[in-house]
Specification:
Helices cover about 65% and strands about 0% of the residues. By secondary structure, it is mainly α. Strands 1-2 form a two-stranded antiparallel ribbon. The longest helix is centred in the middle third of the chain and has 29 residues. The protein is elongated, with a radius of gyration of 24 Å.
Length: about 325
Amino acid sequence: METENSIDLNYLGRIGQYFIYLCKQFRMFIFQNDWKVLPMSAVIAAMVAIAVGKGLFVSMEGTFQATFALTCVCIWNGFFNSIQAICKERAIIKREHRAGLHITSYVLAHMTYQLFLCVLQSVITIVVLGLFKVKYPVTGVFAPFAFEFFITLFLITYAADMMALMISAIVKTPMAAMTVMPFMLIIQLVFSGFIQLPEKLADLSRLMLSKWGVQGLCAISGYNHLPAVMIWNKMTNAGDKISVGGGVSVKDIMNLIEENNMRDQILDKLGEANQRADFASTIDNLFQSWGFLIWFIIVFSIITVVFLEFVDKDQR
């Protein structure tokens, strides 16, 4: 592990230490293959595009599934970026803290470097989805869709990254960090709102960054203005097996509807019946989503600093 033993930290202020550790992070990016997280994010984005990309921004159900999948991608990217970033060099931190290291400078350097990674991963995700012919809307809630899409993906990724950095500051070893990571990921996915939860547990989703990620992505996607196609598709598959009497099947009625060009009208009406207030394309919903994600980033960062400030008393 690279150290800064050649530099007397007592002669550096907080700003000087910040740049020392920031440069260290970028050297690790280049020479210790930390850049590998970028092609990995491209591969994951491609898998999502192949699996659910066709329905994204096209139908309610397709958009809900795809935004949930994208939220999972962002959380995974963020977790993987920093889950071992601090715990793997805990002994170095303890030694350098006794030599004059400012924990705030150290954590801020990590935050800046992780911000750099999250920006690149968000851009890569958007580009990969475009390469797989996902058709993006032109406008978002209050700005061009591309801008709002990038900001939302970035905030989800960075919030997950800061959560993982916090965990890395708390746990004992890299192995413990990797053990905790899938458990935390499962919690985020279960309480994201994608799964129908009992009423007593539903409020817990407000404490999950995944919930606000899905809400933000659905808001900018125009979820409430999209048609609902699931019921129609199910009836199409089973309609010829259901008779309404007189030798007429549900399939026959659906064919008649299509011949009279009423299919889109019905799908729009089904969409109106399945609208959700929290997914409405409003500034309040979008800013609420962004605000909670920013709040998570701040809280996780503060907790990280607090735990590391007591690193000298840690007997682990």
